[in-house]
Amino acid sequence: MSEKQDNKKGHVDSLHQVPMFNHATHPEQDSAWEERLHPHWEHLDEWSDRHSPHPSAAHIQQALLQAKKRNRRRLWKELLVLWSAALLLVGGGCSLAQANWYIYVWMQLISLCGAVLIWAICIHPSNGSEQNE
Fold this sequence. Notes:
The chain is an all-alpha fold. It is built from six helices and no strands.
């Protein structure tokens, strides 16, 4: 490692110069480590408190209320889209039934067959999966 990289490390190198021992067999080393690391721990605590403040209960409650409002707004938008699609389909079906009964009946039969196929393939569980549960 070059001297420039050694100089950039600064006070961190001083921690690596003390060899690691089993603290259970050398209790005097434990107190030396604590004395050596204590200023660094204080610096880390100060830095942590300065850069990552803990949110207050009011702040957490405010964030939860905002998330609840966003979720409620999203659900209302989805419900509006669902009702709009339903009205469009019912209105289209009614106008098709009024214009031509034969096409309306065929469209209903095709829709019924498609719904049964989707239910049988995708939604209805197979017998094998019921046995495993």
